[in-house]
Amino acid sequence: MKTDLDRLMSARRLDALVIVGGEDYSPLRDYLTQGVHIGRELILKKHGAAPLLIVGGMELDEARKSGLAVRTYADLGYLDLLQSAGGDVLKAGVAFWGRALAEIGITSGRVGVYGRGDVNYFIVFIDLLREAYPAVQFVGEAGLTLFDEAMLTKDEDEIARLKSVAERTVSVIEATWNYIAGHRLAADETVVQPDGTPLTVGDVKRFVIRELLERGLEDTDMIFAQGRDAGYPHSRGAAGDVLRAGRSIVFDLFPREMGGGYYHDMTRTWCIGYAPPAVQAAYDDVLTAFEMAVEAFGAGKKTHLVQEAVLNYFEARGHQTARSHPGTLEGYVHSLGHGVGLNIHERPGITHLRQEDSFQPGNCITLEPGLYYPEQGFGVRVEDLFVVTAAGELVSLTPFRKDLVIPMLPAEPPA
Amino acid sequence: MKTDLDRLMSARRLDALVIVGGEDYSPLRDYLTQGVHIGRELILKKHGAAPLLIVGGMELDEARKSGLAVRTYADLGYLDLLQSAGGDVLKAGVAFWGRALAEIGITSGRVGVYGRGDVNYFIVFIDLLREAYPAVQFVGEAGLTLFDEAMLTKDEDEIARLKSVAERTVSVIEATWNYIAGHRLAADETVVQPDGTPLTVGDVKRFVIRELLERGLEDTDMIFAQGRDAGYPHSRGAAGDVLRAGRSIVFDLFPREMGGGYYHDMTRTWCIGYAPPAVQAAYDDVLTAFEMAVEAFGAGKKTHLVQEAVLNYFEARGHQTARSHPGTLEGYVHSLGHGVGLNIHERPGITHLRQEDSFQPGNCITLEPGLYYPEQGFGVRVEDLFVVTAAGELVSLTPFRKDLVIPMLPAEPPA
Asked: Which of A200, A347, B84, B367 is the most exposed place for a label (fewest CB within 10 A)?
């Protein structure tokens, strides 16, 4: 949790953090500033002290909404530094970091640098920082980083936001089911609109985006993929594809708060009108795997054990898996789930390839078994988002029915 | 342009490029792959050869739409490397880069690393790469990078996409004007909806987002800021703020193609019903400055000269500027413009702080003078997006009227 930052810094022997931000939405900025809408900021945090936010003068008004102490680049003399550097932005930047670190009382020690940025820039910049400030160790971090670790467990405010996004997302899924069910099937089994034109994947996606918007959510590239496309877990679906009865549709919706913020992540598989036997059989296996995963869950338990239970089941049912056939594109080809928060994919991971993660109270995680048979023209997946309560219970935030078939009205009698 | 990549590599003595991608939208990915929807990819380009795209197996179907040669991580043996590394993702990643570079024929020489990623990760990763492959120089780049330079000039396909986004954005601005003008003023000069409730900044923003969506565009955090908020150039505006007659409203809209892509960037300043004399006077100065900037433009000319013409004018009119009073928050506080493409802010910059940029055919740039008086409760800005044609002409992509006042219907007679 956010309140663990000093403890996590101690564990890494870090005297300070510098978090960089570019022009894009930044999860770490959101995490530390209550989601203010700024860019090109620096956030500095000394161990044991509250963070300092440094922004351009034009961002000042927004930045103050963070509740943090705020200084501008100009306050700290950036323009003089730029002049002294003869207009060289890189040199001025190096000098400015020294000044900003001094502002929080750091002239030596270990400084962890975090955030998302242009890799090419920071390769150059870190080399220059190290040269300019030999008394300071500038360090990065891979693997389970300080912020990954903090974000593993959500506080009450975060859970409240996640629940709100979840309720709105479920309501959009319900609206989408009703939208599709409100159409009719033509004689050739295509889904048609009242004016007789076919209903496409693009039409459905536009409907979904509008419904999200009405609820203050934004799409982040949903999957609505039919038939063979559904057989590739990350195929987004083709906008021009006409909806047809009897094809599996994988609908994976992972919107977030408008403008950036907390995510939801859920998947349903639907067949319009009826389900072919092969799709139904795979779907039954996936539903069983989903229920097994929920059963196998336990607070404190290693996450890979739950994935392994699912792998055992799928393999016993005769499916290839990412364990039995590494790299396979048929069968159960991915991990069982992941953490969700200000990032769509967070720790813990729930995969046989990662032995060290455990479930713990405050986790917000997906469970999402699936089976993929692109050559047979289908794929199926089911995914709910769960929180692990303080009591160690697994509670779904995605209470939407898992029916496979959307019943359709009979076709209009021919005119 | 994209076709200049080999020339730009030669100028930097680069034998190869590696472009990294995370889970978010990546402008460089879009630039090199025709905008396919993938994540966690690596793109490698040897000098003189076409790029190679490496993705996870689940992304294969989408990745093939790029038209590039595609391999999966599994194809290149990532899973074996992970096993050999005892599950250490970082070690396996270092080994994989060696294998991927060998795949394009690179075992020594200079390799430029580009793209957006987690800075903390790459600080660690680059150190390890350098240690593991001493025959390869892994270099970054700051300042005007290879891709900044390529993107300075747009090709015909890019200009066509920019024009299409421009037309749709202008149509949304028109619709927003009509939407506001379709309301009435109450006796207290607030703008009211047909049911008598006040019209807020949040209502207008939701309207704008819906209109963008209908046209296949997405908002990227528009500014619709009234009164004192308009006096801070980057204040987004407060959602609960009720629209009132006689306040300056800065409406800066910079949407992009849905899901990531080319941007438009334009600003209008509006006063509902009437403009107070101080706002009108500042607006007249800004319009004059805008026209001066268009006049001062010339293909081949240094960009800072145009900013300096505008600075001279504003200073002669008695306004403080970022040149006369560095760091000021009153008067003309920012640069005159910037390039626009797959990033909202690209080179060339049009500022007195950057002497080296020149205008050239294929540029797509904004001109956006503004004046800010937050203590007096207003700010004004006008911004169009332009392309520089092959003939060196400056052509606006933003043909929307620059009227300050939105005329309103008279108030309803009291019941």
From this structure: B84
Residue A375 forms contact with B (CB below 8 Å): no
B139 touches chain A (CB under 8 A): yes
Task: Count CB atoms within 10 A of the CB of residue B316.
Answer: 8
Say which CATH number the domain at A198 has. 3.90.230.10
The closest CB to that of B62, out of A62, A235, A327, belongs to A235
How do B248-253 and B223-226 pair as beta strands? Answer: antiparallel
Cβ of B113 and A120 within 8 Å? yes
Nearest-CA neighbor of B27 among A220, A209, A24? A24
Whether B123 sits inside 8 A of A140 (CB atoms) is yes
pTM to 2 decimals?
Answer: 0.89
A337-348 mean pLDDT: 97
pLDDT per residue as tens digits for the range B232-261: 888 888 889 999 999 999 999 999 998 889
Same domain, B135 and B252: no
Say whether B118 sits in a helix, a strand or coil.
strand
Pairing state of beta strands B136-139 and B109-118? parallel
Q: What is the CATH number of the domain that holds A88?
A: 3.40.350.10
Residue A413, in any domain of the structure: no
**B120 and B156 together in one domain:** no
A329 and A347, same domain (yes or no)? yes
Crossing angle between the packed helical segments A119-132 and B119-132, to the nearest 10 degrees:
80
What distance in Å separates residue A414's CA from the closest CA in chain B? Answer: 33
Whether the CA torsion B225, B228, B231, B233 is positive or negative: it is: negative
Q: Which of residues 176-215 of B touch A (CB under 8 A)?
A: 206, 209-210, 213
B7 min Cα distance to partner chain A (Å): 19
- The sign one gets for the Cα dihedral A101, A103, A109, A110 is negative
> pLDDT at position B411, please?
65
3-state secondary structure string across B136-173:
EEEECCCCCCHHHHHHCCCCHHHHHHHHHHHHHHHHHH
**Chain A residues lying within 8 Å of B263, measured CB to CB:** none
B343/A23 Cβ within 8 A: yes
ipTM attached to this prediction: 0.89
Domain count, chain A: 2
Tell me the residue range of the domain where A179 lies. Answer: 152-406
* Residues B61, A229: C-beta atoms closer than 8 Å: yes
Q: Report which residue type is found at A143.
A: G
Low-confidence ranges of chain B (pLDDT < 50): 414-415
Is residue A330 in some structural domain? Answer: yes
